[in-house]
Amino acid sequence: MKTGSLLIVAFLAPALISPAQDTTPSAQDAAKPAAPAATTTAIAVPDSYVIGVPDVIMVSVLKEPTLTNTMLVRPDGMISLPLLGDVKAEGKTPMQLADEITTKLKMFIQDPNVTIILTQMNSKKVYLMGEIGKPGPILLTPGMTLLQAIATDGGLSQFANSKKIYILRNQGGKLQKIPVQYKQALKGNASLNLKLNPDDTIVVP
pLDDT value at position 34? Predict the structure, then answer.
């Protein structure tokens, strides 16, 4: 009888121990800190977007972490890169800047793969004047429209004459006055909800 009892305990022992062993890794995994989220957020811009001061861009060089960095375009229009020193960024599209950096890096590394990512678009602004919540400049986000700009700036004041709103726009060196049909745009007429250009001025009488 004693021998039989010992055999039963011997067979049961692994079954009793294994559940605890199985659950230990999952408990450890639960205690592990979550991986940090990426902090760089790319802004979608058209290929024709021209980098300006003080935009913030990320220069990413594939498989070269020491050459990958996020930086502000300085007042002189330059950025500073390892190996290359100062490089002119202002006045170039992201693709043009990537091509230029790629060409210069070929002197130091083989087949560099360079990507330029816009993370903060600070150089493009529109201006709002007159009977509006907060007159002054605001950042022009990609695709921003008339209604979006007015809403961003606090909306029209109670004294605004919505029938006489207009946009001042520089076209080829000449200032153009573009009448706005504000109420019709509000009703959903997309063709009247004009897309804004950099340095547009919205005037609300």
Answer: 41
User: SS3 of 195, please?
Assistant: strand
Query: Can you list the pairs that 181-188 forms with residues at least 24 positions away whose Cβ atoms lie under 8 Å?
Result: 182/146, 182/150, 182/156, 185/146, 185/147, 186/147
Going from the C-alpha of 1 to that of each of 6, 11, 12, the distances in angstroms are 9, 16, 17
Residue 193 phi/psi, 5-degree rounding, is -90, 80
pLDDT of residue 43: 85
Point out which residues pair with 181 in neighbouring strands.
none
With contact defined as beta carbons under 8 Å apart, do 196 and 145 qualify?
yes
pLDDT in tens, 155-173: 999 999 999 999 999 988 8
Q: What is the pTM for the complete model shown?
A: 0.67
| Token duo for residue 10 | 């011997």
Residue-range domains of the chain with CATH: 56-120 (3.30.1950.10), 125-204 (3.10.560.10)
Question: C-alpha distances in angstroms, 183 versus 76, 142, 163, 188, 192?
Answer: 43, 23, 8, 9, 9
Q: Residue type for 153, please?
A: D
Q: How far apart are the C-alpha atoms of 88 and 104, rounded to whole Å?
A: 12
